Amino acid sequence: MLTGRGREIQYLRQFYEKSGSQFVVLYGERGVGKTRLVREFADGLSCFYYACRDVSEREQLFQWGRELSEERIAIAEFPAWQEVFAGSLRQDRGKQVFVLDEFQYLLKNSNSFIGELTAFVDAQAGQQKLLVILVSSSISWVEGSMIKKMGTAAHRLSGLLKVRPLGFYELWEAFPGYSSEQMLGLYAVLGGNPGLWQCMSPAKSLKENVCETILSPSGALSGECGRILSEELRELNVYQTILSALAVGHHKLNDIYAYTGFSRAKISVYLKNLMERELIEKVFSYDTEGRENVQKAVYRIRNHFVHFAFTYLYPAASRLAFADAETFYEMDIAPTFDRFRSLSFKEVCRDYLMQEAAKGRLPFEVSDAGEWTGKAGDIDIILQSESGETLLACCQCERTVFPYADYEWLLFLAGQAKLRTDHIWLFTDGKFDEELMAEARKNESLTLILL
Question: What is the pTM of this model?
């Protein structure tokens, strides 16, 4: 069964149930589960699926026609667009689902494709209704160039659905035997990409999976970071230098400039390209009255697997090539891995709070959310109501015990940010010290949460 995609399937179903024909664009990063989603949605429906290639128009038509001929459909060796469309129709009654996967190749390499497709759908209006699902793994192209490339045909689009990565709790369903510590580690490495999840075994430990799948030269994810970057980016030497700077902690533009030696203008352009592909993110501090204590916007690596690769694999490439996988894990990953996974723990806690907010289980209705990046330290999560009622959260999984001193530090940072402290929520995957638990028993505004 498909996990965590009920909303997306329902979105597609509403267009299938509408009268007439519709065009829907479905997009998201490679491996996020788009094809699986469409397959699950179309189960039991009349459906045609074609995987587009990045080739010339003539070669595309040849390959499409060849696939149809293998299904014993009579068609020319190099057919026209209308011929392949007609050959792809099923004779079943009712609306047909018509899926074109990685359709950006069709639009990029053919000036006539989209016009031919809309004309074909219109011509079928009295006989066959179609739900055309156009699938793409190129987020930046869909959000930046697709509408212009489609021209007037863009007016035919009925819906646009971005398939986002799944969350921590869906991953835990796929690896039910993992402890919370191992689960956080796995999520820190893979993020919410089900295509990466499938490469690892729930029957093996986190260390075994990382060693066999990522660190081993024959592993399914060996070199995966390079594949992710090279799919849409050119000048990898520049991008990899910037990602390296981010991975070692240079998060501000001036710091990246000092590390790389590239001009600020050049860095800004490449950062923008990385953000468009959702490989990095630009984080702005929550707007508070304590502006004199805040840092300017910072950049962070957003893609979990790319972050893991540039934290551990890229800087130690020579040792990785020469050492066995288990030795590399123990020497280069294990000593700092708790800190690495702590960054994902904050993400897990934010997701938890937003889920609780959606269910009405927080002390107030949330109208704004964010984080505060201060000169003295950061406040992991800030939630506020329209009236200014505030919830502050601190997420800690680097140490086995959450100390009272960290609670005091959060209160200090709240003063720096000039934020109210109506509700304080503390998260850990370990345990809280006795002083902190005693404080929580007498202080109604303090909530302690164990993963």
Answer: 0.91
Which token pair is 399? 């140490």
Q: For the segment 409-441, what is each residue's pLDDT rounded down to a tens digit? A: 999 999 999 999 999 999 999 899 999 999 999
Give 288-337 pLDDT, tens digit per residue.
998 898 888 899 999 999 999 999 999 999 999 999 999 999 999 999 99
pLDDT surpasses 60 at 29: yes
